[in-house]
């Protein structure tokens, strides 16, 4: 079977992953409306392509927080990569480095962040964290991330409690015994009461700020009000995200929320988006609407499930080729030429 | 089979209830457009969730007409509960009391209101009534309700005649011989000409007022004009309802009508809504749009059909957990923090 | 099988009519978009029902051009009733008289207009005509209609040529040899070149006016411009119609066009509508949007196909009951209380 | 099987063509959204038909760049006609001449342009070209076209690179060995690196202008900005086109883009449209929205696949009959009477 587009990897993963793992990765909250809307919302946006521009030399590189990446697609934080491929997050780290892009490693990884760093030295990586009831545990994670060369901290803001994913409840989802949430080993028992602190507020960003010199990126913002608060509390970046539709169902699609957030931020910090990216032209739409970069979640897992590091590179390469082609067909030779004029949307 | 969400109870009831009973409970008028719209209209409303608010202590209690309930979901009046479970409305009354919420008992119950009161003493109950051609019969019901400790009277306004429910006509629906509309025994023969009085007008509320000191809640209002009349005629509450889509087909979905009614009422009386509630987040949407409380109809019957009192508690507990979770994920720690800012809707 | 709603008659007719006859009656032009839109457009209109009005005495009678009918539903002109029932238009005439409503007999009937008059003396009937190349033939029809007691002339304006109905082309539709377009026998050969005159213009209404004292109703108007011209040329009534979606595909649904026409006419002549009526509540919507009366086409044929005169009466009786019930549930006790306030529509 | 409408030819071609050829002709870029939108967008436009106009004498002729054609439908440039019929573009040329309309021959023909000219001397033909890296090759094509009597040059602007058509990638599409891109034989090897020049800009139109006295028509314009540039650079005509949805997916449907382009052009040059034409009434809509003429792509190939020259004539004749009929039913006796007043559209 030829792997031509990302759906091919999805079909492969659905066929070959254990049902419980597939269901976990695919899960959305409640009716999965937001999970699916993330994708559908892209389809409602139309390009306004321009013709007869010199697109013979294409430059698709960009920078995020000062670091150059080969194209504006990074890897979003998702948990438990060993469910998809034996080497887990080590493969993910290697693929991201090979493709010269950014990998946001999840707290809920099945490798330690030191193992990822060792697997792909020199790769651009950010570390995603939650704030735990046990603040000392969170502080240790921050220190370890900084010490291991991670270059950004991504604070997830949309998970005071875990969303209700019906299939996981039905399946009684839990990690197989031979896998561990290694970053947290010793800190507390993961499978009991949630270690995450639902009392976290904006002021905790100041606390986080006091722990590290790494830039702080906040993930999970969906409204202009929160975007304004994020800027005011001094974050360096915002990831517009609804956690892949896994938390509050029937919130906005991320590409729709992006417009509102970008407008509120007015260029003061970088804005990224995840959720629903399935084609290179989706990336182009997100950038046209103001994102500096997008991050892919499930498609990265499909790539891992297909062939580990190599499969994930395949996924990224396809997105890269599609993104370059859609840019050219829309009349843009470099990322700096992408702008809102390229799209029309019922939201604009 | 795990009972994870309300649809699981629906599937159970459809499978195990006699077809004629399932059809009766499921029936909508004519093409069932409004019945289905009640549900679809919720799906068109999007949340605007807020992040990083302290949601460690959740308070989901509310008050209706001064009485505290454990969360803003009560049980709407529906008829013939013995069709779902042998103990009928006695089970319903017990489940409502166990969950500390309000049960609106229907005139068309298969237990008397005294039996319900005896089954669950101290529970918060309102009594639903129609105004009959035989006014003496209506007056007797009002007195019995007041004497039995019911704390509110719910006047149904949308049934001068019964809607055309095609399946009931095809099935020749009628109660099995061993069940009775017990509240009306002796008053008149139910199966002949409708005992309901289609000449009722707003002035009859004054007559009802003269019979009782109980608060009067009017059920079936769908327009701003009628909401204004309801307030003017001195009711204490309004239930925005289209009778579960069983009366006039192709009227508005109740969640859409709620916006108009709330706007007209301007806080002068409490406004509630029923129809289409299937998830905890639907409750959150209704409250965000101004409802003080919602009432569930068919889901309560599915719970009864599953396991009687216990099954109905399961349904309520799931709604409660989902409501609490969706509140937290939207950034609200107590019901008082819920407001219109939480939703965006094409109707707003 | 119980005949509960009009769809039951449709299903019956589809099952028992010869395919070529069913296809002919069901046919729409081209992709059948307008035929289907006629129905769908009704579903997009929502009622705003009013409560607690005295609807104990219902009066559903109305008048069209001064003649009282039992309820505002007449029978639209359709051809070849013998394809549905052996007695053809004689049965139709008898059913219309029995139900005390108006029957518009088609030029393309399989009985003569004299036979219809004889079959149901005293019934309210209008005669539908085209203007033929052979004006003498048209004049003779007008005289015969007037002489036979028909009380209105309905000029069809939307058929300069016959629409392209793909199934009729595929089936090679033509009348079986034992049926005849009896009204035209002797006038010209029907199966050759179309006898209809595509050069007809508004001025021909003056010619028609000169032939008869009967009121002239023009059928097939869909725009405000043509409505204005119709009034200006002195017609007594307008039927908003797209010929059941059988002529120009992808014109407007008739209920949508009605709004525009009613607005243009400003009460100077009566406005009727046909196309897409399938339930009593559709009639209520049409009246709320300004129609004086509606006419049914295909449903009348389904009734004939079911049981001739008796089946058509069944159809009319169901519509009558449904119309009365929907009026009551919307809070109207008589036709004069129906108004635009009863509906909300994206068109308004 | 009767060939009644264009879908019949589509069904035939899908059934009888080799899968690889069918897939190539049917292909759209990526998810095929734009390919399908081209058709769906027509269905969203509604006519406002006018009645009682004299349509006894119909004149459907029009002129494009001064040349009269029998009706406003020409043949869009598509490649590799031998995949559909052994005689390839020679048959196409003959059919176009027989129907007295315009044929735009593709650079990627499987016959030379001289062969086409010889096959149908005197026919109205335009030649479609790309600008090649090898400018001499392009210049030679221009000269040959002019010398062979082609009367217009159509510069395709939307293919700096070829769109991603998944099925072609999966099928490994390439021409069978016995077919050749004959126009380019000797110029360069087609199957290697794309010979097309992605550095082409608007200034190259001046270069093209310097090579020939033929009118230049630019194909692939979708925005008002590019329409303005086209006029400014002196083209004689614009074809609003998205390459049948085969280049950038999720750009606008052509009939939607037409409105914007026509508005920008303000009559300074002729505007045409291709993509999604499937019925005569689609032609009428395009003309009502300002197109001077439409061009059909895939339907022409289906006609060829059915019966070569004869099959294509069948397709054109059906479109012609449908167009004439829809004009008459909308109340227009000649093309000059067609205008924006005939349609209503959410875009207007």
UniProtKB/TrEMBL annotation, chains A, B, C, D:
One of its GO terms (molecular function) is (S)-2-hydroxy-acid oxidase activity. One of its GO terms (cellular component) is peroxisomal matrix. The active site is at residue 243. FMN binds at residues 77-79, 106, 128, 130, 156, 219, 241, 274-278, 297-298. This is (S)-2-hydroxy-acid oxidase. Glyoxylate binds at residues 24, 165, 243, 246. It is an enzyme of class 1 (oxidoreductase). It comes from the Eukaryota. The keyword Flavoprotein applies. The keyword Transcription does not apply. Coiled coil: none annotated. Residues 1-348 form the FMN hydroxy acid dehydrogenase domain. Its cofactor is FMN. Keywords: Flavoprotein, FMN, Oxidoreductase. It catalyses: 2-hydroxyoctanoate + O2 = 2-oxooctanoate + H2O2; a (2S)-2-hydroxycarboxylate + O2 = a 2-oxocarboxylate + H2O2. Belongs to the FMN-dependent alpha-hydroxy acid dehydrogenase family. Its EC number is 1.1.3.15. The lineage of its organism: Eukaryota, Metazoa, Chordata, Craniata, Vertebrata. GO terms for biological process: fatty acid alpha-oxidation. Signal peptide: none annotated. InterPro entries: Aldolase_TIM, Alpha-hydoxy_acid_DH_FMN, FMN-dep_DH, FMN_HAD, FMN_hydac_DH_AS.
């Amino acid at each position: 079977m030829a792997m031509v587009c990302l759906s091919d990897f999805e079909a492969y993963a659905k066929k070959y992953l254990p049902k419980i793992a597939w269901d976990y990765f695919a899960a959305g909250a409640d009716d999965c409306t937001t999970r699916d809307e993330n994708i559908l919302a892209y389809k409602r946006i139309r390009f306004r392509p321009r013709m007869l521009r010199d697109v013979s030399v294409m430059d698709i590189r960009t920078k995020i927080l000062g670091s150059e990446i080969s194209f504006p697609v990074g890897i979003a934080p998702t948990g438990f990569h060993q469910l998809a491929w034996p080497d887990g997050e080590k493969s993910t780290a290697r693929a991201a480095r090979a493709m010269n892009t950014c990998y946001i490693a999840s707290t809920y990884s099945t490798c330690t962040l030191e193992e990822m760093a060792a697997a792909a030295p020199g790769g651009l990586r950010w570390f995603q964290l939650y704030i735990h009831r046990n603040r000392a545990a969170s502080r240790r994670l921050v220190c370890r991330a900084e010490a291991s060369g991670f270059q950004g901290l991504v604070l997830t803001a949309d998970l005071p409690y875990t969303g209700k994913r019906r299939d996981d409840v039905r399946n009684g989802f839990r990690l197989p015994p031979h896998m561990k949430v290694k970053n947290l080993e010793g800190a507390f028992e993961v499978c009991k009461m949630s270690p995450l602190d639902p009392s976290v507020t904006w002021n905790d960003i100041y606390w986080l700020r006091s722990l590290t010199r790494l830039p702080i990126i906040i993930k999970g913002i969906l409204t202009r009000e929160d975007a304004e608060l994020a800027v005011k509390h001094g974050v360096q970046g915002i990831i517009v995200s609804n956690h892949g539709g896994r938390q509050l169902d029937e919130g906005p699609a991320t590409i729709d929320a992006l417009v509102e957030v970008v407008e509120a931020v007015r260029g003061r910090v970088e804005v990224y988006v995840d959720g629903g990216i399935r084609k290179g032209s989706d990336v182009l739409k997100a950038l046209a609407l103001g994102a500096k970069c997008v991050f892919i979640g499930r498609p990265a897992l499909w790539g891992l499930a297909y062939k580990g590091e190599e499969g994930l590179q395949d996924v990224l390469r396809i997105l890269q080729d599609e993104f370059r082609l859609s840019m050219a067909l829309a009349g843009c030779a470099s990322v700096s030429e992408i702008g809102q004029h390229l799209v029309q949307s019922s939201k604009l």
